[in-house]
């Protein structure tokens, strides 16, 4: 897979190194000569250019890329890069970094963004995820389809503890994608039984999040004597 990364700062270089380690082709683009540090990511291609300029993106052969990542520290730049990548070059997957949470609402399909990653939101979500049991935590927003990656740790009192995945009447527009149980990562097969303390990861429509949280957090009804 060929990936172009606009922004060769610490974030862009870290992403590039990870992708290269996983066997992908990576092109780093930055207009600042001081950001061109080939020795830091020697296996990547480098281009000194303004990623907001069509001529620069032509030189980068953006139409050959499977993914474009707009990772600069400027939200305006990231939006322009995303829009050009999607509309002018037809890049299938565009991922954009959101620096200011107040701008997050702009990072959607209208600007060519498939996935928006807000570092402040992600950090706060990870803090919430570490301390919250029974509360739904939004980890990532997908622009297409108005869907989010959400997490909920199944509380001990949940009515779903001990129930098979196939026996749960899940809300529409939600999909259980992973169960994290201790150090294990489980594929949620129909016969898998949910256990208290399981971390459940869903892709869910935003309109279904409250319904999903209610379903997973519902307490067992005490039997009457």
TrEMBL record:
PANTHER family: POTASSIUM CHANNEL PROTEIN 2-RELATED-RELATED, TRK SYSTEM POTASSIUM UPTAKE PROTEIN TRKA. It comes from the Bacteria. Residues 137-218 form the RCK C-terminal domain. Keywords: Ion transport, NAD, Potassium, Potassium transport, Transport. InterPro entries: K_uptake_TrkA (IPR006036), NAD(P)-bd_dom_sf (IPR036291), RCK_C (IPR006037), RCK_C_sf (IPR036721), RCK_N (IPR003148), Trk_Ktr_HKT_K-transport (IPR050721). SUPFAM superfamilies: NAD(P)-binding Rossmann-fold domains, TrkA C-terminal domain-like. One of its GO terms (cellular component) is plasma membrane. GO terms for molecular function: potassium ion transmembrane transporter activity. This is Trk system potassium uptake protein TrkA. It holds the Pfam family TrkA_C. The keyword Amino-acid biosynthesis does not apply.
């Amino acid at each position: 897979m060929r990936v172009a990364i606009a922004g060769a700062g610490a974030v862009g270089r870290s992403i590039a190194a990870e992708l290269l380690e996983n066997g992908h082709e990576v092109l780093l683009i930055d207009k600042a000569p001081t950001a061109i540090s080939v020795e830091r990511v020697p296996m990547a291609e480098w281009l000194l250019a303004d990623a907001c300029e069509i001529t620069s993106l032509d030189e980068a052969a953006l139409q050959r890329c499977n993914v474009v990542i707009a990772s600069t520290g400027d939200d305006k730049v990231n939006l322009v890069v995303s829009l050009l990548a999607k509309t002018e070059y037809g890049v299938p997957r565009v991922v954009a970094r959101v620096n200011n949470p107040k701008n997050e609402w702009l990072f959607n399909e209208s600007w060519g963004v498939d996935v928006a990653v807000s570092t402040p939101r992600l950090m706060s979500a990870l803090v919430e995820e570490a301390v919250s049991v029974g509360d739904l935590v939004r980890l990532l927003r997908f622009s297409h389809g108005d869907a989010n990656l959400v997490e909920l740790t199944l509380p001990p009192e949940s009515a779903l503890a001990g129930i098979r995945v196939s026996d749960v009447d899940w809300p529409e527009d939600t999909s259980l994608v992973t169960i994290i149980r201790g150090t294990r990562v489980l594929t949620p097969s129909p016969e898998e039984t949910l256990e208290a303390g399981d971390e459940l990861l869903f892709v869910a429509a935003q309109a279904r999040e409250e319904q999903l949280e209610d379903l997973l957090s519902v307490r067992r009804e005490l039997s009457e004597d």
